[in-house]
Specification:
The protein is α/β, with parallel strands linked by helices. It is built from 14 helices and 16 strands. The chain has a six-stranded mixed beta sheet with strand order 6-7-8-3-9-10, with helices on both faces. A four-stranded antiparallel beta sheet has the order 2-1-4-5. The chain has a four-stranded antiparallel beta sheet with strand order 12-15-11-16, covered by helices on one side. The radius of gyration is 24 Å and the shape is elongated. Bound molecules: adenosine-5'-triphosphate. The site of adenosine-5'-triphosphate has 12 residues, from strand 1, strand 2 and helix 2. Keywords: ATP-binding, Nucleotide-binding. InterPro entries: AAA+_ATPase (IPR003593), ABC_transporter-like_ATP-bd (IPR003439), ABC_transporter-like_CS (IPR017871), P-loop_NTPase (IPR027417). It comes from Herbiconiux aconitum. This is ATP-binding cassette domain-containing protein. One of its GO terms (molecular function) is ATP binding.
Length: 393
């Protein structure tokens, strides 16, 4: 990482490739105002790989479209790659690469010709464009497809061509709007390998929006979380997870008829033990993975069908230390635990802690519907909104 999001102002301004202040976009839809992006302040340092994460409609694309001059802001300013987006949009466009959602032309042009046309569009000489085209086709594994028509490419191949098109004029800053949406896990992995390799080779700054939590977690040095048009968190994924979420302990208990509040005797007693041990933090009762007849209500309580297996979920700091103590205490209280699991927090837990909502429910719907796959594994949502607890025993 070139610079942490908390680096000093002077270091930032020296190396800044994006600086935005108060960037705001409002749309008017049927006389109603839509606050798509509100007061976006942003400093991106040269060479950084920044991921913009947020549910559908959070304002990610609108932010990108303002920064790439495709959309004029309602108010605010931004300097991108050394040029003011309002005063010199043409210079911004010349300098950056932008790969929007579903850019790839479904045309009859051959892959290599499409690349050459793009080079010409950016004013490159034919020889420069040809050299760069061949270089990119090679590094993006597109060389064997050079003579194929764009229309005949697969989804993954088209996305790689999009990237090649965005890089033809060697931009030092590349904006990618959901580059992997709709791709199968294998193509997603390939695409990211290419993005990372290109960045390694050319030191390109990459600003990417994604619905995929695992991508932001794995590849970005910095994650901006956006919700309702505002950036609500900005840090490394590791730091966000440590400071905003906690380890998740999940305990299973023997069934038994749930009472009127949808819980069982074992669960009630387990919660009392947990509360005693964890400074009043009793955890949340959640349905077991894939259990039929049980559902988590909006209020976070569990409406379980008769005999539906239930679990207790606790969000704690230092779960590895808390779990053994908790199990000992439950055992000493005569409460039989049938299963125990400890999981590290994910960026979804971060979003949940920030907003009380799950990104998996909202944001990944489109993405997973498109790819029919969730490489992060599991889509189960829980109602855990509890702040990380500290073991007091
Ligand atoms: N051209 C437009 N006219 C009216 N409203 C718009 C327009 N473009 C975006 N919006 C609205 O602005 C808000 C932000 O949309 P935006 O596309 O930036 O979100 P997003 O985070 O990129 O969502 P997604 O992940 O679904 O692409 C949404 O409420 C959207 O409906």
């Amino acid at each position: 990482m070139t610079s942490s999001p908390h680096s000093s102002g002077s270091a930032r301004s020296r190396d800044a490739i994006i600086t935005a202040r108060g960037l705001t976009k409002q749309f008017t839809v049927k006389r109603a105002q839509v606050d798509a992006v509100t007061d976006l302040d942003l400093d991106v340092t040269r060479g950084e790989l920044v991921a913009f994460l947020g549910p559908n409609g959070a304002g990610k694309s609108t932010s990108l479209r303002m920064l790439t001059t495709l959309l004029p802001p309602t108010s605010g300013t931004a300097v991108v790659a050394g040029h003011d987006i309002a005063r010199d949009p043409a210079a911004v466009r010349r300098t950056i690469g932008y790969i929007g959602q579903g850019t790839s032309a479904g045309n009859n042009q051959r892959v290599r010709d499409e690349m050459l046309s793009q080079g010409a569009f950016y004013g490159m000489s034919r020889s420069d464009a040809a050299r760069r085209t061949d270089e990119l086709l090679e590094s993006l594994d597109l060389a064997p497809l050079a003579k194929r028509t764009v229309m005949g490419l697969s989804g993954g191949q088209k996305r790689r061509l999009d990237i090649a098109l965005g890089l033809v004029h060697s931009p030092s800053l590349l904006f990618l709007d959901e580059p992997s949406t709709g791709l199968d896990p294998q193509s997603r992995a390939n695409l990211w390998r290419h993005i990372l390799e290109l960045r390694e080779q050319h030191g390109t700054t990459i600003f990417v929006t994604t619905h995929y939590l695992d991508e932001a977690d794995q590849f970005a040095e910095r994650v901006l979380v956006m919700d309702h048009g505002r950036v609500i968190a900005d840090d490394t994924a590791a730091s966000l997870k440590t400071t905003l979420a906690g380890d998740v302990i999940t305990l299973g208990f023997e069934g038994g008829a749930p009472d009127a509040r949808g819980t069982t005797d074992a669960l009630t007693r387990a919660r009392q033990v947990a509360a005693r041990l964890l400074d009043g933090h009793a955890g949340e009762v959640v349905p077991a993975r894939g259990s039929a007849g049980s559902a988590t209500t909006a209020s976070g309580s569990t409406a379980a069908g008769p005999g539906a297996p239930l679990r207790l979920e606790l969000v704690v700091d230092h779960g590895d230390r808390v779990l053994p103590v908790l199990l000992r205490e439950l055992d000493a209280s005569g409460i039989a635990v049938t299963s125990a699991a400890l999981r590290q927090p994910t960026l979804d837990d971060v979003f949940l802690a920030l907003t009380g909502r799950s990104l998996r429910d909202e944001g990944e719907t489109t993405a997973s519907a498109a790819s029919k796959a969730d490489p992060a594994g599991g889509t189960e949502a829980t109602a855990t909104t509890t702040a990380p607890a500290q073991v007091s025993a």
